[in-house]
Structure formats: C-alpha cells, structure tokens
Amino acid sequence: MLGTLWKTASVITLLTGAASAIDLDIKDDKSIKSAAHTAAYGAMSYYTGNLTGHIPGAFPTKWWEGSILFNTMIHYWYLTGDDSNNPAVIQGMNWQSGDNNDYMTANYSSYIGNDDQSFWGLAAMTAAEFGLPQMSTEVSWASKAVAVFNSQASRWDDSTCGGGLRWQIYTYEAGYGIKNAMSNGEFFELAARLARYTGNTTYSNWAEKIWDWSSSVPLLNNETWIISDSMSAENHCATSDNVQWSINYGAYVTGAAYMYNLTNGASKWKSGVDGLLNTSLTNFFPAQYGGDIMSEYECEEKELCNNSEILFKGIFVRDLALVSTVAPYTMDDILPRLQGSASAAAEACTGESNDTCGVRWYSEKYDGEKGMEEQLSAASVFTANLVAFDRSDLATQAGGTNATSATTNTTDTRASGTQAASSASGTSANGASVLVGGPLAVTAAVLAGMMATF
Ligand SMILES: *[C@@H]1O[C@H](CO)[C@@H](O)[C@H](O)[C@H]1NC(C)=O
Ligand SMILES: *[C@@H]1O[C@H](CO)[C@@H](O)[C@H](O)[C@H]1NC(C)=O
Ligand SMILES: *[C@@H]1O[C@H](CO)[C@@H](O)[C@H](O)[C@H]1NC(C)=O
Ligand SMILES: *[C@@H]1O[C@H](CO)[C@@H](O)[C@H](O)[C@H]1NC(C)=O
Ligand SMILES: *[C@@H]1O[C@H](CO)[C@@H](O)[C@H](O)[C@H]1NC(C)=O
Ligand SMILES: *[C@@H]1O[C@H](CO)[C@@H](O)[C@H](O)[C@H]1NC(C)=O
Ligand SMILES: *[C@@H]1O[C@H](CO)[C@@H](O)[C@H](O)[C@H]1NC(C)=O
Ligand SMILES: *[C@@H]1O[C@H](CO)[C@@H](O)[C@H](O)[C@H]1NC(C)=O
Ligand SMILES: *[C@@H]1O[C@H](CO)[C@@H](O)[C@H](O)[C@H]1NC(C)=O
Ligand SMILES: *[C@@H]1O[C@H](CO)[C@@H](O)[C@H](O)[C@H]1NC(C)=O
C-alpha cells in the first residue's frame, strides 16, 4: 500500500463551538440518506481531480485511496440514488485505468503493490455489479476488472510457499519478500465476484485455489478463523505476524459469501462465512464499547492510525453490506452492528461546526481528527445501513448478471487487446492468459433496467 503520513493524536482545542450534529434516525431511510450525503459531500470536497488542469483520479502520494473514494461513491450513488458525483467518479475511474485498462497506469506502476491494483479492480467490479454507466469510448467496467484479474493471475508465485501473490510486484520494492493477506484476499474476492458475475468457472477455480492456498499457510486459519497480515517468503511462510486488520477479514469473508451464493450454499463456503464473520464481528466490534460499534482496535486505542488504516473501517462495513446481500442469512448478525456503528459515527461527525468526522466512532464525540479518510469511512457506514431498506434493489444487481443474462461484447476489442498485453508480460502456465473476451458486458437492456430503479 502506498505510504501516507502517520496521523498522531492531537488537537483537543478544535472542540469548540456548537456542534451541528448529524441528526440520525437509524430506522428512517431518509435520515440515513441525509447523513450519508453530508459525509460523502465532505469526502468529495477533498477531491480536485475533476478541476481544470488537474489529473482525474490522481492522488500522487496515496494512489490507492482514489479507488476507495470511487468505490465508496459508487455504493453511495447506488443506495441513495444521488448521482451527482457520478461524472467525477466515471472520469477518474477511467483515467486511472491506464492505456491497458488494468490499473497499472505508468505514473504509478513502478511502485504499485498487488493490493493497490486490486483495490482499483474491486472498484471496477462494483461499478459492473451496480451498473454504473460507462462512456461509449471505454471498455466495460467488467472488462477492466478482468484486466486486473489477468495481470494478478500472471503473478501467482509458486516459487516459494507453494503459491500466493507477493505484496509488492517488483524485486526492488521493500514488500517484495512478503506474502500477505491483503493482496491474496483481494485477489480472492475479485475472482469470486467475477465468478458470480460471469458464471465462468475459470474464476471460481481461481477462487478455490487462492482460498485453499491461503489456508495451507499461516495466513487464513480455517479452524480458529483468525487471519494474519503477513508472512515472509524468505522463510517459506513458516510463520506469520498475527497482526489484525479488518480489511483482511473483509476481503476473505466477501469472497467466501459470493462463493457461497454461487454454489447455492456449499458447506465449504458457509463455514468460511460463518467462521470469519464470527471472529471479525467479535474482534472489531469490541465488547468494551457495547459490542456493536466498529473499531480498528490495533491502531485506534493507541491513537496511531495512519491514513490507510482510517479507511479500513469504511472498506469493512461496505464488505459487510455485500455479504448481507449475497448471503442474506447473515443479515441478523450484521445489521445491528451497522446500525450501532452508524449511530456512533453520527456523534463522531460533529466537528468544526460543519459535521466534520473524526476517527474513533466509539468515542461518540468528535475527536479532533479530520481528512478524506475519516469522511469516507463515515459515508460508508451510513450508506451501508441502506441495505436494510433497499435490499431488493441491491439483491437484483449485485451479481444479478450471471452467465445467462450477460453477453459477450464482441465489439469490445480494447478488452481483448488488454488481455493479450497482460498475458504477454506474465506466465501463461496457469491458464489465466487465455481469458480473452468472455461474457462480461452488461447488456443494454439490463443496464436500462438498472437505471430505471432511480
Ligand atoms: C499504514 O499502515 C499500513 C498497514 O496497516 C501499512 O501497510 C502502511 O505502510 C502504513 N503507512 C505508513 C505510511 O506507515
Ligand atoms: C468544515 O470546516 C472546516 C473549518 O472551517 C473546513 O476546513 C472544511 O473545509 C469544512 N468542510 C466542509 C465539507 O465544508
Ligand atoms: C467536481 O466534482 C464535484 C463532486 O462531484 C462536483 O461538485 C463539482 O461540480 C465538479 N466540478 C467540475 C468542474 O466538474
Ligand atoms: C500521468 O502524469 C502526466 C504528467 O503529469 C499526466 O498528464 C497524466 O494525466 C498522468 N496520468 C495518470 C493516469 O495519472
Ligand atoms: C483447512 O485447510 C487445509 C489446508 O488447505 C485443508 O487441508 C483442510 O481440509 C481445511 N479444513 C477445512 C475444514 O476446510
Ligand atoms: C462466535 O461463536 C461463538 C461460539 O460458537 C458464539 O458463542 C458467539 O456468539 C459467536 N459470536 C458472534 C459474534 O457470532
Ligand atoms: C444469492 O444472492 C441473492 C441476492 O443477489 C439472494 O436473493 C439469494 O438468496 C442468495 N442465495 C443464497 C443461497 O443465499
Ligand atoms: C441467471 O439470470 C436469469 C435472469 O436474471 C435467471 O432467470 C436465471 O435463473 C439465472 N441463472 C442462474 C444459474 O443463476
Ligand atoms: C462494447 O464495447 C464497445 C467498444 O469498447 C463499446 O463502445 C460499447 O459501448 C460496449 N457495449 C456494451 C454493451 O458494453
Ligand atoms: C470462460 O473463460 C474462458 C477463458 O476466457 C473461456 O475460454 C470460456 O469460454 C469461458 N466460459 C464461458 C462459459 O463463457
């Protein structure tokens, strides 16, 4: 993940003036939409990529965060119906996908990590599933997600640890010697979502392979359901660090939920969903704060979260919203925690007399921190609560396009070109490189149906 400055605890003196609290009624969808709007507006106020002379989607010091901004705004649009940010989102998502549509854009490719790239791939996947409109001059969102998948599949590394993706891509990058949960978990999630979206077994076979490898090394423990963050490829992944981050759980539980849905409830995936939900809901919603308010506890309690880590909560609650949609039986466990977290976040978003959001929701008051990351996590938790109201819409579209209803976009020549280019630079031994074309594009009729929802 690309670096950012550490944030340190600070600034109690900012707690001045009458707070204009977000007045959230968690049982009222209009009230939730209003809270989501306030937080999303605050997040977009940090975005300048759509201004004249600026580069769309570019965040020079923290490139991966652009993918989180856009993925959050796609969820926000889809669940609230407010499409006012879509022009900026569509422009930025396309610009950063680069000449090959695979989010290995030249300006960043020399220091990109596998996890950075796949966060963009997952944003494109969300755009495909939710039917974000695409420009006629661009390939489909699903084609861009496939391009990311293909380049990652070509990097699968059997030379150490029996497989897995490395954290970083190039030998000169510091994280090259590491195999981590974030890179492999997101690759798993992308494969599982593509499998359900296209119905193509190439992706489900990969999802199985990534999951099985992850549980064969000390990364994903399929008995305790604890996920560690990193292992050293240099010591053959003999040990792991046991550091706990919510997004590692989010990626694996989301992928497992999509596989659960695709297989119509196969026990392998159900036990994965149950096990990972159990550990993550227990650990990231600490009993000491009532058990229903999310905390990225490894850094929040010490007040040492960096910008990346401040985004993790938002990514995780978005994942929970997807899980509750494709594995609806989980809703009863998930919803109270989304509600408790949103209610607390509303009280943490009371800064600067304009609803600026802090980091720690459990403090239930503004904690003096601010940034795009704080705004995005709050926007995500408000938005995620709308699954309690708009389930039928979300259910239709989060993967409603299966092999039957998807069609091959035979005119999508740029996607084929991309895939040929990706495979040229990687190995083709695993079969990933033959993913040319495929039933990816949403038909115009399906897209029209999606848009009619609003
Ligand atoms: C922020 O934390 C993440 C892991 O949680 C780490 O990968 C990243 O390098 C950190 N960033 C900085 C600038 O320290
Ligand atoms: C909220 O107020 C602060 C301090 O005046 C300002 O820096 C920030 O841009 C404002 N945020 C929004 C979304 O208007
Ligand atoms: C840039 O995007 C923001 C947020 O969607 C929007 O309010 C603003 O009007 C856009 N500016 C331009 C110049 O398109
Ligand atoms: C890469 O940098 C150049 C020069 O600043 C800029 O014109 C271009 O838009 C950038 N491309 C992306 C994808 O950020
Ligand atoms: C746990 O993972 C190991 C290694 O992949 C596998 O052999 C075992 O069957 C898995 N257990 C379950 C219950 O899936
Ligand atoms: C996790 O599993 C344990 C043992 O089955 C159970 O007591 C606990 O309630 C579960 N926790 C959650 C959050 O589901
Ligand atoms: C799969 O997801 C759909 C929503 O897209 C849901 O209606 C269905 O019940 C899910 N299948 C299973 C087995 O839970
Ligand atoms: C695929 O989607 C169509 C139309 O939405 C539906 O009728 C069909 O049952 C689905 N097939 C599978 C295998 O889910
Ligand atoms: C198919 O791809 C072409 C070329 O990129 C594009 O113009 C067209 O809109 C795409 N059609 C669909 C249905 O996505
Ligand atoms: C799945 O993808 C592979 C590789 O691109 C392709 O050969 C195959 O035809 C696809 N299967 C279906 C059912 O479309």
From TrEMBL:
Record keywords: Glycoprotein, Glycosidase, Hydrolase, Membrane, Signal
SUPFAM superfamilies for this protein: Six-hairpin glycosidases
Pfam families assigned: Glyco_hydro_76
Signal peptide: 1-21
Known catalytic reactions: Random hydrolysis of (1->6)-alpha-D-mannosidic linkages in unbranched (1->6)-mannans
The protein's name: Mannan endo-1,6-alpha-mannosidase
Compartments, as annotated in UniProt: Endomembrane system
Entry's EC annotation: 3.2.1.101
Assigned protein family: Belongs to the glycosyl hydrolase 76 family.
Annotated region (Disordered), positions in chain: 398-429
Native organism: Penicillium frequentans
Statement: the UniProt record of this protein carries the keyword Signal: yes
GO MF entries: mannan endo-1,6-alpha-mannosidase activity
GO cellular component: endomembrane system
GO terms classed as biological process: carbohydrate catabolic process; fungal-type cell wall biogenesis
